[in-house]
Amino acid sequence: xxxxxxxxxxxxxxxxxxxxxxxxxxxxLPDDIMKRISVSYSPCMGLCSDVGEPPYxxxxxxxxxxxxxxxxMQILKEALSDAVR
Amino acid sequence: xxxxxxxxxxxxxxxxxxxxxxxxDTFMSQKFKEEGRVISVLSDGLGSGIKASVLSTITSxxxxxxxxxxxxxxxxxxxxxxxxxxxxxxxISYSTFCLCEIDCFGKVRIxxxxxxxxxxxxxxxxxNIQKKKIPVEREDLDNTHLLISEFKMQKEDRIIFFSDxxxxxxxxxxxxxxxxxxxxxxxxxxxxxxxxxxxxxxLSRRIVIKAEQNDYSVLKDDTSCCVIYxxxxxxxxxxxxxxxDEKNDGYLSNYIRDFQGRKIVCGGTTAQxxxxxxxxxxxxxxxxxxxxxxxxxxxxxxxxxxxxxxxLSKVERILSEExxxxxxxxxxxxxxxxxxxxSDKITFLVGTRINIAHQDPTLPIELEIRRNVVKxxxxxxxxxWLKDVDISYx
Lengths: 85, 394
Known about the structure:
The complex is a heterodimer. By secondary structure, chain A is α+β, with helices and mostly antiparallel strands.
């Protein structure tokens, strides 16, 4: 099964605005789901002065802003079901 | 402090007599940057505990303040000696001391009063320095005198002085019935021959720990050891923040490439600029070392990459604390502090471009201005760790 790529920005703004908690969410996910996600981190994606709100993530190269603990689950669910299709 | 291009590292390790919450020995050291002088004082108060601590603190601070006023070391020492009160029962003065002054030409003057003799270690050998005995007149104390030594410090020289907690450690044991006075020389020689570059900080710790072992981990007296080491400076560059003008991005990356010494980058954007300019990739370490701070990243040619302002603020916070008990030994701030501690000449290259996103007043925490945090760190490194610190702006 194809893996989805998830990149999380750990720059100052993203980290302060909730990015720090995203790492904790991933630790709660079961192993069989985590096996399908390739997680990487970036010291800064340089997006915080653009339109949108930190924290930023990239799922399969697509930038998503204003990610929170709750909507990260939804984002991952959608990305995983898209990958199955 | 630098003398003729060489750096003088001063460090002292102390351990309290078993069961005491304060150390009866006091160590103070200050560098006078403008004059290029370094003054270090170790004083041992009579007895132990709070009384000894107060006495030794008074003695050390008086000696340091006299020296601050550019008083001759002998005058300062004899003035203090004349004012030291006498113990009613034992008929000896309340505290002993060793005062060491090194001027900008490397000339050393040491005044000792009733303290174990200092050692000068040069090229692996202990050098005997002729001492002048200067009598000090005091009606209530017989035969009171100061010992004054003068010599020129050379590169790689180490001056070691300690309280009698070190020299009398192990006294009465079968293998060292008269204490550790002579044995300590063999031990220091052995350590330095095994690690010729050992820092003043590490050597002073090794000596105190060995003294503690001599007493079977139950120290019978307050134990302090000071080491002064003159050597080639270990350079460290800390780059933080992107340059004001983007045209200088290349300059920043070349500066880091050409710098002789260890290199730290604090800031995600700064790290990305260097990665872009050099074509080297960055990988971010995901192991959770410190939940308060964003993780560390890695790149070839740079010793440490951390986040910027949050990490620097934590470094500043730890530095300003009297005693810091680290919970995350591998946290970004702790790693940065370790590199700062292991360096003598530290250069901060601060980018002055303002990150507009950081200026948002609705942010949940206060983000300090980078320049202010770096200035505070500089001042703390200079006053607490006697480091030689420069800040440049780009």
